[in-house]
Amino acid sequence: MTAATGRPALHFTTRQNWINDPNGLLWLDGTWHLFYQHNPFGAAWGNMSWGHATSTDLLHWTEHPVAIACTPEESIFSGSAVLDRANSSGFGEPGRPAIVAVYTSALASGRQAQSLAYSTDGGYHWTKYEQNPVLDRGSTAFRDPKVFWYTADDGTGYWVMVAVEADDHRVVLYRSDTLREWHYLSDVGPLDSPDGLWECPDLFRLPIDGDPANPGWVLIVSRDPGRTGTGSYTAYLTGDFDGERFTPHPGVGLRRVDHGRDFYAGVTFDGAPGGRRVMLAWLSNWNYAEVTPTDPWRGAMSIPRELALVTGDGAPELTQRLPAEIEGSDSWASPVTVAPFLLEGRRPLALELPSIVDLELEPRGATAIGWEWTVGDTLVARVEYEPASSQLTLSRPDPSPGVHPTFASVERLTVPLTGGRLRLRLLLDHTSIELFADAGRVTWTDVVFPGAESGGAVVFARGGQALVAATVRRGERGDPI
Ligand code: FRU
């Protein structure tokens, strides 16, 4: 174990014990509801139940009692939640719609089937439907239902569920008028290498380049290649959905939503105002999730990101940015701006945890420029750009003593300069670094464990000069939950 690490200040963690996937993400009457895979009794995976937290600004979260609890026969695996406005399920009353959670019952028999629970008090108390499960294929790997209301061109609509046959690398689609009876629509996949699992799908529409007349569809699927290599990550396909079948755009396969190591099971909030798509993911990786050196909590959620689709090379691509709620929050201290200066060598830059750091780097002869976070002589994370190859690299060594043999990472991507400059945004917290580059086309999310000391940062330019400018916004909220 490394020395105790501070608790994240911007990222949701539970007071104690284990969490994994975000579940049941739902916006309702000004409140963002986050449910999540939770072990209420320990800091390792087990006793899977849905925990619950709420926020009004996507930054400060209040943890509530367990929402849907496991029993000896039934673990409550991942799923989603919707507001049943028209009371199609009959769980609500006229004028008092129920929230319906659709989750996977992982049964003691090994079978996985989809079940319902409902809340008539805005998400705080839940009743399991007595006729569960509502959808059973006799499978042992049928899970993670994400349900949304689909509106056809003629204005009529129905519920659509995307779920996975995890071992077969398939997303399966169903429809329903009542949330209780489901009818098979179609399959997507298998599409990629036969190893590992497909988990936690999502399906949603987004305008391409902000043009509502030109919508695209995004199918999210998380990939766990079997706890080897670089481990688990969230991926996506773009394509079209006609209410029955998802047809991927030709020529592009699964792409990563995030290029770091710790962004898994990413799914979006249902019902977000203005049709926005806000994604949350689990800030961990199945390779080492159960051995991360934190106590008494284990696991955190990513910062929420607002997604957009932009014209890309061949097919549209996803971009990510901080939602306005976070960007404009009064939880940030006034920005400290470091005016542009010419740099050759290294120069300290204040490291504030938590903070948003905006860096602008313009190569003026340097062969490498970047930013480094260190504790004493020990590197926590390094961002480095080589102008000659346009390669941006995020490196994260394994702390000592190590977390896991696959923890150390060096991820490289091609990122073009814009107007001769590289613009990077870093979101820094006590146990994570989230990097946004190339106008949100590229993000990296990595957990880090600097230990009890948070350390310091430098900017650097090697082999020549660079023009550097920075803005640091410190988060006011220092108090952990
Ligand atoms: C993904 C996952 C889901 C499952 C849940 C169980 O991390 O394996 O497929 O529903 O976690 O906790």
Number of helices: 1
Radius of gyration: 22 Å
Beta-strand percentage range: over 45%
Q: Describe the biggest sheet?
A: 10 strands, antiparallel
* CATH class label of the largest domain: Mainly Beta
Counting helices, strands and paired strands, the structural category is mainly beta
Distance between the termini: 23 Å
Overall residue-averaged pLDDT value: 95
* Overall number of structural domains: 2
Share of residues in helices: under 10%
Unreliable residue stretches: none
Shape: globular
Query: Architecture of the largest domain, CATH level 2?
Result: 5 Propeller
GO cellular component, one term: cytoplasm
Pfam families: Glyco_hydro_32C (PF08244), Glyco_hydro_32N (PF00251)
Keywords: Glycosidase, Hydrolase
Domain Glycosyl hydrolase family 32 C-terminal: 382-466
How do the helices and strands line up, and which of them pair or pack?
Blueprint: E1 17-28, E2 31-39, E3 49-55, E4 62-68, E5 74-84, E6 98-107, E7 112-119, E8 127-128, E9 142-151, E10 157-165, E11 170-176, E12 183-188, E13 197-208, E14 211-224, E15 233-241, E16 246-248, E17 255-256, E18 264-268, E19 278-282, E20 297-298, E21 305-310, E22 317-321, H1 324-327, E23 336-349, E24 355-364, E25 368-375, E26 378-386, E27 391-396, E28 409-414, E29 422-429, E30 432-437, E31 442-447, E32 456-474
Parallel strand pairs: 1-20
Antiparallel strand pairs: 1-2, 2-3, 3-4, 5-6, 6-7, 7-8, 9-10, 10-11, 11-12, 13-14, 14-15, 15-16, 15-17, 18-19, 19-21, 21-22, 23-32, 24-29, 24-32, 25-26, 25-32, 26-27, 27-28, 29-30, 30-31
The structure holds beta-D-fructofuranose (FRU).
Beta-D-fructofuranose (FRU) is lined by residues 20-21, 37, 48, 77-78, 104, 143-144, 199-200, 265.
